Amino acid sequence: MPRIDTVVIGAGQAGLAASRLLTGAGRDHVVLDRGRLAERWRSERWDSLRLLSPNWMTRLPGWEYDGPDPDGYMGASELVASFEAYAHSFAAPVEIGVAVRSVRATSDGFVVVSDGGAWRADHVVIATGDAMHPRVPAIARDFASRTYQLPTSRYRNPDQLPAGGVLVVGASASGVQVADELRRAGRDVVIAAGNHTRMPRTYRGMDVFWWMARAGVLDATIDETPEPEAARRAPSLQLVGRPTHDTLDLGVLSDRGVRVAGRLLGTDGRRAHFGDDLKVSLARSDERMNRTLETIDRHIDDSGCSAEFEPPERPRRIRLRGVPTELDLVQLGVSTVVWATGFRRSYPWLRVPVLDAHGEIRQRRGVTPVRGLYVLGLRFQHHRDSNFIGGVGRDARFVVEHICGRHACEGVGA
Q1: What's 355's DSSP letter?
Q2: Do the bridges between strand 94-95 and strand 271-274 make them parallel or antiparallel, or are there none, so unpaired?
Q3: Which of 62, 178, 200, 390 could bond to 57 as cystine, CB 3.0-4.6 Å?
Q4: How many CA atoms lie within 13 A of 330 on its CB side?
Q5: Cβ atoms within 10 A of the Cβ of 326, count?
């Protein structure tokens, strides 16, 4: 069994960032992926998807976007091509089509067993990402057997779905985008909206991410957050990346003919039941949005450059009429349910005692309680943008410097 310094599991943005830095540090390593390089961007995204963040934010260690449209939003195929070029640029030692079967600790490191062989490693970096498995609630079993159901990771385009209306469950970024695409394709659409975070695409004349980067919103750390676990579970922003830089929220969807309901409570196979808390969800969403916009306004005022930008006009409150608490799905012709209900993580191959009661890896800044074991790419791992393409690099740098012994071991909760 060959000996190697580091095994990196996952060849997405987190794994490639780690590989680039390990290469620069002269550390012998291999990157393993069950599929192709950046597999989830290839096979678990819908056809029209574009990044929520502008192209200028698309960067990894030693590389950044230098194309002709820095303020545009890259499509998934363009991103995959960029990742392939990035990996080629430093001859990343990626082995594709190699599923990891087990990782266990030994007295002198780890043994990693995969479809492609086994290694003894001094270090292991788990870079399998934040969005591993669709989180589909148990109520999915209660829909009629004739109802076609799929998570957003399996959705590709409207033509893929059977004829008829569509119920989209979830109103974060994926849910509102899929609902909008289906409505534009002429489908009758219902969206069930629970907890969500509204955000304008542009504010005071600039992309909202431009402001969030400059105002330090994306630099906030988990240590500065009053409720860390709530922050890690917070819904993704209701945004869409389009050349028109338009805003997409529940008000826009309603104006386009999408029927907006509250949180899905259940179904008897024919009727769907929704909570009556949509008004509360909308108010909380606006509170979160306005806190971010207030941070941006303070940044502008403190910088003394208010005159250079548009005035601080906040998005109007969304007022919806006729919000249903019950709908007859058969009468409405709903044939499909799309689950935009987030993702969960699982590590059945990880035979190392680092998981908490919820099955999450215990870590601080990517350092786990087990010496030599690290993780990358988790949501709000340390910074607010830790799971962003443009944010994973600084976490990867910390982890690789820790591997190289340049950081004292930081305490991780047992």
Answers
A1: B
A2: unpaired
A3: 390
A4: 9
A5: 11
